[in-house]
Amino acid sequence: MINTALETIVAGVRCREVLADLSEYLDGTLPSSRVEALQAHLAGCDNCAGFGGHIADTLAALRQNDAPFARDLTTLVLARIGGGLSP
Amino acid sequence: MPDADRPVEGPSDAALLAASAAGGTGAFAVFMRRHQAPVTRYLALFTGTPDVDDAVQDTFVAAWRAAAGFRGDSSARGWLYAIARHAVHRQQRRRVDEPAQLESIEELAERAGWGSLPANPATTTEEDRAELLHRALALLPIEERAVLTLRELDGLSGEETAAAMHLSLAAMKSRLHRARIHLAALTRQLAADEQRETSRPRARIGGTP
Questions:
Q1: ipTM of this predicted complex?
Q2: pLDDT digits (tens, 9 = 90+) for B3-45
Q3: Per CATH, is B105-199 categorized as 3.40.30.10?
Q4: 3-state secondary structure string, B87-145?
Q5: Contact A27 B158 (CB under 8 A)
Q6: What is the pTM of this model?
Q7: B 103-162 residues with CB below 8 A of A?
């Protein structure tokens, strides 16, 4: 069941369209003509502005909390490739 | 092995792989030390298990064998990830963990809180949030987890991510978009589950009913 509020039009753009373009907008890869339309929509739409902020915030937290992985396996691999394998 | 002790800032990946292709195990050791941590992380997130030592070794052994084929026109990281993915896919070919029918972006967005986000989000500690995010990441379908790992955690460009995943740029963008919103939906669901768990009345036995 889709939320009919997604069909809401603000500044000539539907919320559904904003949702579709959100990733490219956040990445800065959306064409500039489209950016303008999106920004006009976001300025007047709490749902989309809040959701966009929520996604941006979630991604920022993911990038910051990158868990470290360690344990040097180089010696084990060198033993394997040194044992008769050739590139 | 004169290259083995050089700092990782030294020779380029292309130079190290060229030396490896000529039999230089020292150069390959430098290359491996440079890339082992991100490859390990990639495989751990990609497979959903931290126990990936064997897969990491297989990846680098395969990279050693394929070193002569590295053309240097893409990032070595992307090249390695493609090798890693290939190794994992060989192991997982029989496992089918994709849902039968994909939810639409709109459905995922609603689950992620579109239209119902509180004005003041609940405050959680950095550690709690990181834990939720990593649990959510592990629940994503494998291809969505992979694209998020490459783009968000490794910071590969869109083009590099697409190349590593053997996707067109448009297909990669579409998958990344779904993965991001899906991650937010799963994180929200896990947080809600946790909230329910902590606020549930404590079970009790004995006493007067």
A1: 0.78
A2: 333 344 689 999 999 999 998 888 999 999 999 998 988 888 8
A3: no
A4: HHHHHHCCCCCCCCCCCCHHHHHHHCCCCCCCCCCCCCCHHHHHHHHHHHHHHCCHHHH
A5: yes
A6: 0.66
A7: 104-107, 109-110, 112-115, 117, 121, 126, 129-130, 133-134, 137, 148, 152-153, 158
